[in-house]
Write a structure and sequence with these properties.
By secondary structure, this protein is an alpha+beta fold. A four-stranded antiparallel beta sheet has the order 3-2-1-4. Helix 2 crosses helix 5, helix 3 runs parallel beside helix 5 and helix 4 packs antiparallel against helix 5.
Length: 149
């Protein structure tokens, strides 16, 4: 709990303005995951990222470094989703990085252990994993990949 409070205390005023926008975007994406099939949702997010008016939101995201933006997205996804937030976080990152015209991919993978099948979502930018463990691509077999159009 103390670590979380320190993390919030370290936010700049601009990051405090960006965070509520990311909360709203995470909630909207969460609703989208319930209403649309994943390929359609990824397509909609990609189209929104390139729309002249929609690419301006959330405000202040372009001035934020990739590392800080990833941390803010993580806070927004965890807060709005709770456990199993990787899909929401990855969809949000996919959308935000697509607005930067980055070479970005949303990946969905599965891994099987002795008892269960596990799923995970992550984002790659220029072939490098963003906001997740660097070995995630080795632990999960990719079953779906989406790129902005």
């Amino acid at each position: 709990m103390l670590r979380k409070l320190r993390r919030l205390a370290s936010l700049s005023p601009g990051e405090w303005l960006l965070l509520p926008q990311l909360f709203f975007a995470a909630l909207t994406i969460g609703a989208g995951t319930r209403l649309l099939p994943l390929p359609r949702l990824a397509h909609v997010l990609s189209r929104c990222a390139h729309h002249p008016w929609l690419r301006r939101i959330p405000a202040l995201r372009r001035q934020t470094s990739l590392e800080r933006l990833t941390a803010l997205v993580d806070i927004a996804a965890r807060t709005t989703c709770g456990g199993g937030y990787c899909l929401r976080r990855s969809l949000l990152l996919f959308w935000l990085l697509s607005t930067r015209d980055a070479s970005v991919r949303l990946l969905i993978g599965v891994a099987k252990d002795a008892e269960a099948l596990h799923g995970h979502a992550w984002v790659e930018r220029g072939g490098e994993i963003v906001g997740d463990s660097p070995d995630v691509a080795k632990r999960f077999a990719t079953v779906l990949a989406f790129e902005p159009r």
